[in-house]
Amino acid sequence: MIFWQNRGNAWNKKHDFDHAISDFTEIIRLDPSNAKAFASRGNAWLDKGDLDRAIADFSKQISLDPQNARGFGNRGIAWGKKGDYDRAISDYTEELIREPKDSLMYVVRGQAWSKKADFDRAIADYTSAIEINNSNASAYRSRGDAWFDKGDFDRALSDYDEAVRLNPSEVSAYNNRGNLYTRRGDLDRAIADYSEVIKLDPKQALAFLTVVLLGKERRI
Fold first, then answer.
1. Radius of gyration over alpha carbons of the chain, in Å?
2. Across the chain, where does the E strand assignment appear?
3. Which fold has domain 101-167?
4. Does domain 1-84 have CATH number 3.30.360.10?
5. What residue segments make up the domains of the chain, in order of their start?
6. How confident is the chain (220 residues) per 10-residue block, as mean pLDDT?
7. Among 49, 56, 39, which Cα is nearest to 17's?
8. For residue 170, which of 141, 202, 203, 133 has the smallest C-alpha distance?
9. DSSP state of 101
10. Which one, 21, 97, 182, 199, has the greatest CB density within 10 A?
11. Sign of CA dihedral 199, 205, 220, 90
């Protein structure tokens, strides 16, 4: 069955999710208790955008291997994409019980708290992520977003600056810092940040629009 697993993984890396799903399904047919195959197929469904099937496979993985933290985290991501942030937070918490040093999971749980407008809990999670890995640019950018939403622009700016320092290709940090400068009326700095977004991601039409129509901020 290792052959099916390896080929399925290769199909998945090529973004050929249908072939990947077919291979993982064959493993499950041969071994219905193979938790790894359910996990792999769940990830393929998730990447394909079939969230209900992804959740079903991650749930089966969890029932077969309840101590595997990743199953909870991946199911949480699927719940989050469906907009069910309460279930997402519950699953992220289950993963963190099993893997308390997972910096990424604190970030995604923080983002779920932010979607619920619970910015204090979001900031606490982003801070935990930074304490575990202080080179996590995404954690700084996300915490900056939460400070922005709370109206604390000085702290937001500090976090956006750190995100850009850590990852000069962090498009969202430039865009969202540009929004902050726009809100403050510092249009020269805003234009500089939006221009950086355009340079890094020419397909990012929102940035082009914002440069032309300053004052209409959009977060990415």
1. 20
2. none
3. 1.25.40
4. no
5. 1-84, 101-167, 171-220
6. 83 90 93 95 96 98 95 97 98 97 97 98 98 97 98 98 97 94 93 90 65 55
7. 49
8. 141
9. T
10. 21
11. negative
